[in-house]
Amino acid sequence: MDVELRQLRCLVAIVDEGTFTDAAIALGVSQAAVSRTLSALEKRLGVRLLRRTSRETSPTAIGLRVVAHARRVLAEVHNLVQEATSGHAELRIGHHWSALGRLTPALQHRWRQAHPDTQLHLLRINSPSAGLTEGTADLAIMRRPLDDRRFDSAIVGLETRWCAMAAGDSLARRRSVRMVDLSSCVLLVDHRTGSTTAALWPADERPATEESRDIDDWLTIIATGRCVGVTARSVVDQYPRPGIVYLPVRDAEPVAVRLVWWRDDPHPATCTVLELLTDLYRT
Description:
This protein is of the alpha/beta class. The protein contains 8 helices and 12 strands.
């Protein structure tokens, strides 16, 4: 027999209420039913969970650990039911390194005004799908194509490319740089989620590359002066960092910003978000 949710609820009720009698009242069952349910749980686990005397009931050492696990399980089940039955009371938008940069507050403000009953959560998730395949995001804002036929996408805007370099770099004194200026540098790239790779350069001008893992790793390494990075303007707005200088790359092609969603099961707010993001980038 597997452990049942009603057994966990019974255990937690006894601990919270202090007695079998009060637990029975809280659960709306008889005291005998509470005793049977707890005994069945202890038999299934093969341990004694509670110390029972004529005056009090208290958890054993293992009982304390089981109660802590039981609370987490019950909370997760509650969240699962709420998620499935809430009618989409929240919207989770995943993104890699930055949401919309300087446009992020405008997105949050407009959404709150137009949809006060649906909470918007912007989540930085460093996975190739920005949380879609993991189930932790309903939509995703991405700056690289997602080669997966399970998803649809639309370009909502374009962002200029900027170069991040150490403040002591010889190029840092300039007002801007060109692609060719970076050919002799070591380019730091994140092949999983970054928006720029060496393929952006002509084959005979491609810089050497090193690999990073996420935005914090990327910025930390660049600050040493060992590498430079090229990224979208939103990262510049989102991550000012001491020791890092950002310069526009004036001859680089722009970065396409995409909204991505499940092809066969789009979130009900997909069209609304698509229109909102497109309008923000247009204006």
